[in-house]
Write a structure and sequence with these properties.
Number of domains of chain A: 2
Distance between the termini of chain A: 55 Å
Oligomer: homodimer
Largest interface: A-B, 101 and 101 residues
Order of helices and strands of chain A: HEHHEHEHEEHEHEEEHHHEEHEEEHH
CATH superfamily of the largest domain in chain A: Type I PLP-dependent aspartate aminotransferase-like (Major domain)
Number of strands of chain A: 14
Radius of gyration of chain A: 24 Å
Chain lengths: 440, 440
């Protein structure tokens, strides 16, 4: 080690000598609540209703092995080489067939393949969002998208939803208020099908109305559709992109219908945007993995992939039923969503319960969930919980909900005790009226 | 298609209705000259000395197939699932062994695995660069890094180099001038080993001196080392990171020692930085491909990967010799670098030749190269050419240089003709004195 002539800056409160060098946008970087749960939830004795991991053990591994072998035998040197920044042409064509199942028509020229659809989210945000620009998102919305928006210093404004999705009046009002405040609104981010975290699906009428509002306000719609094909009997309405080629960037992924470990997703962009999207993708990673793209292409080409999606649908339907039935059995006084597909149920807690504060007690009872606060950019959500039914076996789901009920009922008892004998929340009461000296 | 109530904005000169919506940073997005060459260079009759594609056909495909099979057999469901944002722990440990070959010691905790080292470049820039901040880079430097810096609105200031790498006086002077102009200098980007595009290796004394200058000016060094292990007999000096744990972010990759199609690279960050780097990586892609990471881990674990690197060294050494010998034979009056490793030779053209303008003529003669202008942020480099010897077989390299000599000699003849009979460059002369009517 060379002896420094000038000592590197040392901050009084930081061990990081580069503390003063970071870009302004790093202020938005913080560990998500979902992330902090990963370590906890992976302990085998904990029933995790927290993550969004697909049940990849349902995949036909021998079939997949066959696809991999053929790629290496027939196209090894191509698979192992750099590729184009937009992604492999044949896979982009096959992606058109997949999107057609949800009513989307487009050109393979306008598809950009990415490292999971998360990267597409990142790139679209990078292309459109200046610091201080507004991104509209459902209340609540996907935690990973909120993280991306923050990382480009966007302001997130939540739009209210009900059991038909985004409420048009709330959207109009939010836009009007933001415009009146002089804000520039760039994107409307939505997950219309089996939404993360609520499980809600936007009705067809709402899709058309939301698009119309976005169009008349020059707001680009970012339609994220990871779960659309994973319905439990009734297909979701056609994608919003099927109604508007120029106003919607559509995001898809193989993470839920095949395997997230391959990290292959895509964006179908309006034609005018796609060239910039490709350039941004190239700057970020040069090219997505050709190896992984060819494996998926081969899998789609040679196997009955729709049958596999049917298997996933049935797997998740059974798990969803197990969760809904357990909720009815163990928490009959609460309310929750009953999704028609996807991975998630949104649970409403009784008044005064705080899902974030309750989490350590839940983990002690060996069940994990994601507190509702993770899905809001503004601190809301404390009275909600996202429950995932995608990964655990049905009997574990039932046991998990039983444990959760124990925790919730314990909290309620505590609450009732305080309600009878004194302040509801000591700390809250403390802020209003100073407690008598014998309590303090 | 719903009929829009308000027509979407239409620009007079743009077919893109979102023309006015893009973020300011998109002004820096433009297709690189290397990218434009891809289509041309891939025609089989063209000898491409343009790209930087490793010769993956030299890989033992059966061995690689074995690694893939074992991963799927023994860890299939793990490989196909989401992973941690920082990357797989065992691979991070193995990466320490690889870096140790170049003198770097660190903790697996401080390694972040990325989608190729390109993504690490992107993330580090995102963490540190505000619009208008300066990134210092060698003159010339890697085109893909310049693209990343532009995409975050950095100003790139080039620092002169000679055959020992960055010239310390030039670095001091550049820093002083930028500081005097009130600029904030965030990063010094350097490729110390077998540099892209010049092939130059920074001497050990220079490494220490450059680090000392960076340290005393609070500038973080971004050390990019894709080619370090691919030397032709004499190893490069120890990495700069081996001299300074807190002042250097070190970037490595499996793209050149194994296969770029897997898209696995990494950053070894100072401890204070790595947490932010992980958060930025998670925001961008959630996690790198576990499948690809485990394949590489298995490959490193079960095969004699150093022997494979030896094979690559010998392959590239023979090709480099072929190129240098052909240059001596066909272009004896020119000068070029003679790299001790890596993929590239930097050719100096005779005065008044323009490598960018000459390229179409070269392609017509069925040889492709990268004009030197691609490697500067400021338009310099027109008098230089980057020649890659990594991909074509030696006899193709020789034929490529022969064709290039034909082009260069043709240009020189043209130049001499004009030098004897009239203006050197018609267009240039045109700007000074109007030509007589019979020439115009």
């Amino acid at each position: 080690m060379t002896t420094p002539s000038t000592p590197r800056r040392v901050e009084g409160i930081s061990l990081d000598p580069w503390y003063n060098s970071y870009a302004d946008r790093t202020a938005g970087l913080s560990a998500s609540e979902v992330r902090a749960l990963f370590a906890v939830a992976s302990r085998p004795e904990v029933v995790s209703l927290a993550g969004g991991m697909p049940y990849v053990s349902a995949l036909p591994q021998d079939v997949l092995n066959g696809s991999i072998e053929r790629v290496m035998q027939e196209q090894g040197p191509v698979a192992l080489q750099y590729g184009g920044g937009q992604g492999v042409g044949i896979l982009r064509e096959q992606i058109l067939d997949i999107m057609a199942l949800e009513g989307v028509r487009g050109s393979a020229d306008d598809v950009v393949i990415t490292t999971g659809s998360q990267q597409a989210l990142d790139l679209v945000t990078k292309l459109f969002v200046n610091p201080g620009d507004v991104v509209l998102a459902e209340a609540p919305s996907y935690v990973g998208a909120l993280g991306v928006f923050r990382s480009y210093q966007a302001e997130v404004a939540h739009v209210l939803m009900d059991d038909e999705g985004i409420i048009p009046e709330s959207l109009r009002e939010t836009i009007a208020n933001l415009r009146a405040a002089g804000k520039s609104i760039k994107l409307l981010y939505t997950i219309p099908n089996f939404q993360n975290p609520t499980g809600v699906t936007m009705s067809f009428a709402r899709r058309a109305e939301v698009l119309e509002i976005a169009r008349s306000n020059d707001i680009l719609v970012l339609e994220d559709n990871p779960y659309g094909l994973l319905h439990f009997g009734t297909p979701a309405p056609h994608a919003m992109r099927s109604l508007d080629d120029d106003g919607v960037v559509y995001l898809g992924t193989f993470s839920k219908t095949l395997a997230p470990g391959l990290r292959v997703g895509w964006a179908l962009a309006p034609h005018g945007i796609r060239e910039k999207l490709i350039l941004a993708a190239e700057a970020a990673i040069l090219s997505p993995s050709v190896f992984n793209q060819l494996i998926i292409s081969e899998y789609l080409n040679r196997t009955d992939w729709m049958a596999q999606i049917e298997t996933f649908r049935e797997t998740y339907r059974v798990r969803k039923e197990a969760m809904i039935s357990a909720l009815g059995e163990y928490l009959p006084k609460l309310s929750w969503t009953d999704p028609g597909g996807g991975f998630f149920v949104w649970l409403n807690l009784p008044p005064h319960l705080d899902s974030k504060a309750m989490l350590p007690r839940a983990v002690k009872e060996l069940v994990a969930y994601t507190p509702g606060t993770a899905f809001y950019a503004d601190g809301r959500g404390g009275n909600h919980i996202r429950l995932s039914f995608c990964y655990p076996q049905p009997d574990f789901i039932q046991e998990g909900i039983r444990r959760l009920a124990t925790v919730i009922n314990g909290e309620l008892e505590l609450l009732n005790t305080f309600a009878q004998t004194g302040p509801l929340h000591l700390s809250q009461r403390h802020n209003v009226i100073a407690p008598p000296p014998n309590i303090g």
